[in-house]
Amino acid sequence: MFKRVGVIGGGQLAWMMAEPAKQLGIELVVQTPHLSDPAVAIASDTVLATLADATATAQLAAKCDVITFENEFVDLPALRCLAERGTRFYPSLDSLSPLLDKYDQRCYLKNLGLPVPNFTDFSSFEHSLTTLEFPLVLKTRRHGYDGQGTFILSNLAELQAALTRLPDVPLLLEEFVPFDRELAVIAARSIAGEMVVYPVVETQQEHQVCRRVIAPAQVSVSIMAEIEAIARTLLPSLDAVGIFGIELFLTPSGQVLVNEIAPRTHNSGHYTIDACATSQFEQHLRAICGLPLGSPHLICAGAVMVNLLGYENASCNYWEKRQQLLAIPNAHLHWYGKTESRIGRKLGHVTVTLEACESLALPQQVATIAQRVEALWYDRRGNDGVKGRRSE
Ligand code: ADP
């Protein structure tokens, strides 16, 4: 079993590994650019450097048995030099390589026979924009997150406006999917090839940012089975090791389309900390350290997770609001310890678990729980964390 794990990235995803790491006797070392990043406080050691700094990753490797990722903003070719010299990465660089660029990822999924929206590399249309039919979705091929880099376009003027903001950036163009709901699933695969799949959840985005997650999603057994089959095709094909998040669209006709794969722990899996036998963070550590995987099953009737997004630019720890959120029955608050709030920044989340007598079958139940959390958090002025957002 590996005991010293290096994490490239020091945000909340690394921070949420702290608790299970302690329980499993694993030491975490992080590579992150700022001393104020959440995981610095819980790491046994920190390499203070940008995420794409492979020289710093070489220093990280010297302190660890295995290196894992908190986000995708890495310099893959530079990391390959380290892998050739013996640094162990889980997931492996080969697993990551088809996923880091959204166009490459779409091609990979399509070649694997998985259902994806119609898409094309934008450069093939660059000189014939007037032939395009709207609505369309334009995405930066790399470095997008929380909807940064995703543009839903209704007409040519909007496309041209988006292009002026994206000079010389490789782009992906795809059909606008008028989805009924967005779904997601977390799956884990171990070094030995063992796999577990968590319950399918519904995710609710506003302005392309995740606001709420409902576990389990209220969808038919056949849709759940179809999504589990997607996970069980994808992870072995990638020779994946660790947690992978899969985001999907469910169309009004009941078709499932894969939107995006995250080769790491994911916001749609935060509910697992309080609602499942094994959290995604523990599972990730188990998978990459060579331990047997844990059960992914729910230990309650269901859960609603609500992101707490910054709604102002301020230096504040929101102590009072945190106490009020904690007073909600069955609410579990996870506060990431970020010292600065910025509009749209993910500062924490609340998961409300459901008792056996409660059910998520009624959309009203979910709305009531989410409204209770959001009314407290976004306060009397009705501020909204996503307008004019900047995140992470
Ligand atoms: P990011 O990688 O920044 O999270 P995504 O590609 O997941 O970006 O897009 C963010 C959100 O934008 C999605 O959750 C969805 O709500 C919306 N979106 C993305 N692609 C499409 C599409 N093809 N059709 C309709 N909505 C989309």
Verbal overview:
The chain is an alpha+beta fold and 392 residues long. The chain folds into 3 domains: 4-89, 3-Layer(aba) Sandwich (Rossmann fold); 118-175, ATP-grasp fold, A domain (Dna Ligase, domain 1, 2-Layer Sandwich), CATH 3.30.1490.20; 181-382, D-amino Acid Aminotransferase, Chain A, domain 1, CATH 3.30.470. The protein contains 12 helices and 17 strands. It has helices at residues 12-15, 18-24, 54-62, 76-84, 93-96, 102-111, 156-165, 221-238, 272-275, 280-289, 319-326, 363-377, and strands spanning 4-8, 27-32, 45-48, 66-69, 119-121, 136-140, 150-153, 171-175, 181-189, 195-197, 201-206, 209-215, 242-250, 256-262, 302-309, 331-335, 346-354. Strands 9, 10, 11, 12, 13, 14, 15, 16 and 17 form a 9-stranded antiparallel β-sheet that branches. Strands 3-2-1-4 form a 4-stranded parallel β-sheet, with helices on both faces. A 4-stranded antiparallel β-sheet has the order 5-8-6-7, with helices on both faces. The longest helix is centred in the middle third of the chain and has 18 residues, at 221-238. The radius of gyration is 20 Å and the shape is globular. Residues 117, 137, 139, 144-150, 152, 174, 176-177, 182, 205, 208, 247, 259-260 line the site of adenosine-5'-diphosphate.
